[in-house]
Amino acid sequence: MKNNRLYHQLLQWDAYFFNFLRMSIFIVMAWIGGLKAFHYEADGIVPFVANSPLMSFFYKNADHKVLNEDKKLVAEYTLYKNQEGKVIKKNIDWHQKNGTYSFSYGLGTMITVIGVLVVLGIWFPKIGAVGAALTFLMSLVTLSFLITTPEVYVPNLGGDGVTPQYGFPYLSGAGRLVLKDIIMMAGGLVLFSDSLKKVIRP
């Protein structure tokens, strides 16, 4: 009897659980979207954007190849990486010409708007459905980086011996970050379904 009462109480909390998911997605979107206004975050997404057939056209130098110090032909952006927390003017100047920062501002705005649409679903199911659908699509694009971006896998850098784990399926820090978007994708689908139910059966 007690278990039955607890079961019904949990069912009544169902709406709160969905709204907590909405708020969670909003926090992630607003925080990450807001950080896109800062150079270090804009620099960090360059490998993803430059290698993506869906987004590389936003950069002026995405397809440029140059010789590095080892005389190997590499993507030009690899020579202008700024380590997080480190400021190198030469690299910043290159990114400004590349369109790195202007693209990041636009992307950050879009991500923040999607987050706002999702959380508005608490009160406006139709708007929430749009936000949830966009969350799913955005996550789908992000997960495509697992196919297009070399930096998502551990590179074979050698050292004192042969690198034992590199390439697929050994995810780098960037790759592990991307893979987590599969949870965001699932959350978008769940909220899309919940919002549609509220629209159809208010």
From TrEMBL:
<feature type="transmembrane region" description="Helical">
    <location>
        <begin position="130"/>
        <end position="148"/>
    </location>
</feature>
<keyword id="KW-0812">Transmembrane</keyword>
<feature type="transmembrane region" description="Helical">
    <location>
        <begin position="168"/>
        <end position="192"/>
    </location>
</feature>
<keyword id="KW-0472">Membrane</keyword>
<feature type="transmembrane region" description="Helical">
    <location>
        <begin position="20"/>
        <end position="38"/>
    </location>
</feature>
<protein>
    <recommendedName>
        <fullName>Inner membrane protein YkgB</fullName>
    </recommendedName>
</protein>
<keyword id="KW-1133">Transmembrane helix</keyword>
<dbReference type="InterPro" id="IPR007339">
    <property type="entry name" value="RclC-like"/>
</dbReference>
<dbReference type="Pfam" id="PF04224">
    <property type="entry name" value="DUF417"/>
</dbReference>
<feature type="transmembrane region" description="Helical">
    <location>
        <begin position="103"/>
        <end position="123"/>
    </location>
</feature>
